[in-house]
Amino acid sequence: MEQDAAHDRAVDAFLAAANTGDPQERDRLLSRALTADVVFWGPLGRGVGRKAVAEFITEVVRSHPSGPCRMVRTTRVDAPDEWARFGWRYEDAAGRVLLSGTDVVHVTADGDIDEMIVFAGALT
Q1: Nearest alpha carbon to residue 48 among 58, 35, 61
Q2: Beta strand 34-42 with 97-107: parallel, antiparallel or unpaired?
Q3: Are 119 and 104 in contact (CB under 8 A)?
Q4: How far apart are CA 53 and CA 99, in angstroms?
Q5: Which domains does the chain have, with CATH numbers?
Q6: pLDDT tens digit string along 89-124?
Q7: What pLDDT score was predicted for residue 68?
Q8: CA 38/CA 96 separation, integer angstroms
Q9: What DSSP string runs through 47-111?
Q10: From CA 109, how far away is CA 82, in angstroms rounded?
Q11: How many angstroms separate the CA atoms of 9 and 63, rounded?
Q12: Most buried in the list 12, 86, 93, 95, measured by CB within 10 Å?
């Protein structure tokens, strides 16, 4: 159960970072969620480090044409050992779902995400 709480904390800190418009708060939250050398596989390719994740959030998540949008966790964090997955949705200010998906993360013994793979959209 302690492991599950660590996975939840890391995932929820990442989502909070994605949802804040304050770059300093984003950096603080990402430092709670991610290792400094996190490997991030997103829809635009591979990035390494918290800065790459912060730039993805700034350029893609926070800059949507629909205006301020937010990431919402839609499932529990399913965590068999150090790997975890969770469902999410990206919604506009009115709550309209713009995109949904599943992320897979690897969590260290310290409770930090050191690898994240984003799967956006439904499998057909």
Answers
A1: 35
A2: unpaired
A3: yes
A4: 19
A5: 2-120 (3.10.450.50)
A6: 999 989 999 999 999 999 999 999 999 999 998 776
A7: 78
A8: 31
A9: EESHHHHHHHIIIIITT-TTSS-EEEE-S--B-STTEEEEEEEEE-TT--EEEEEEEEEEE-TTS
A10: 8
A11: 25
A12: 86
- Whole-number Å distance between alpha carbons of 81 and 32: 20
8-state DSSP, 43? T
Q: Look-up: residue for tokens 């994740």? A: 53
DSSP secondary structure code for residue 120 in this structure: E
How many CB atoms are located within 10 Å of the residue 29 CB? 22
Summarize pLDDT for 40-81 with one digit per residue, the tens.
Answer: 998 888 999 999 999 988 887 787 787 778 999 999 999 988
The helix (H) or strand (E) run that includes residue 36 is: strand 34-42
